[in-house]
């Protein structure tokens, strides 16, 4: 699958996962794709933790309420550091967003499914802090995203997208 095909095939998957393990070699490829993403002023503010140990996954799932991705055989947790880069600007959100998108495309290209869970774990209830404690994340890092990874039981339905002409133009807004 080339990158354009992966972009078209990638959809958020919120269904059940098969119990098929994800080989560590595939997890490494996925994480390398994430760490290859651009980073503002090359500050490399994004770090990753893959979790494939069933006991640790169970502890993570126990604090995620309501539950998500609980049948996935593994997950990747995305960490960020809020480091100023240029003129006191921090690009951590852009950095980890680019890393997550790269990983979602790699996940798709390798035949797996996932979903970007961020707001669900970073809301006022701060599930992310409980997850970070389970994973021994040191101070100075924030856990900002949870990506369950595995083979989907079913094919995800493609969301309806607005027509290209409603969202993209040439030479100015609304241009032809």
From TrEMBL:
Domain Nitroreductase, chain residue ranges per copy:
7-61, 69-151
Alphabetical keyword list: Oxidoreductase
Listed SUPFAM superfamilies: FMN-dependent nitroreductase-like
One annotated GO molecular function: oxidoreductase activity
**Domain of life from the UniProt record:** Bacteria
- Alphabetized InterPro entries for the sequence: Nitroreductase, Nitroreductase-like
Protein's name in the database = Nitroreductase
State the organism named in the record.
Answer: Ruminococcus albus
